[in-house]
Amino acid sequence: MNVFGFTDEQRSTIKIELDGQVIFVPDDMRNRHRQTVADWEEEGNVIPPYVNTTSPYGPLLPVDFKLGMLTLNVTPDMVDAAIAQLDEPDRTRASIYWTSANMFYRDDAWLALIAAFFGKTDDQINEAWDYAMSLSPTVVANA
User: What's the pTM value of the predicted model, to 2 decimals?
Assistant: First the structure.
């Protein structure tokens, strides 16, 4: 199972992939799929929070993203260690994204997952993003 995260600010629906199908699960424990997600949470996993896809934040180059993370006292080695603690297939997917992305996006579910792991708030991430966006003289829009 792959848990993408909540799909709205009210946390009423969770987007997951189960047995190769993407489904939207109501946050209602009477739902059998929600019970499966609860079992996944009991293993120490966290449902990524809703991320507004109309974000005013542009994409970041990996170097700027990593420098922005330093303002939150999060180093690349710490992210590697956090990814290593994820269950499969999330561990492999997050590792590929972390090591291979040409751009990082503020509304990415993996970012929300790692931010939640480190206990970072949206405001903290936004401030770090603002700083990181100021580092590059040319910001690539919709890359």
Answer: 0.57
Kindly state whether residue 143 falls inside one of the protein's structural domains. Answer: no
- Show the domain range for 102: 62-135
Structure-derived torsion over alpha carbons of residues 51, 60, 134, 106, reported in degrees to the nearest 10 = 0
**Structure confidence at residue 136 (pLDDT):** 64
Q: How many domains does the chain have?
A: 2
| Positions in the chain short of pLDDT 70 | 52-55, 136-143
What's phi and psi for 16, nearest 5 deg? Answer: -135, 165
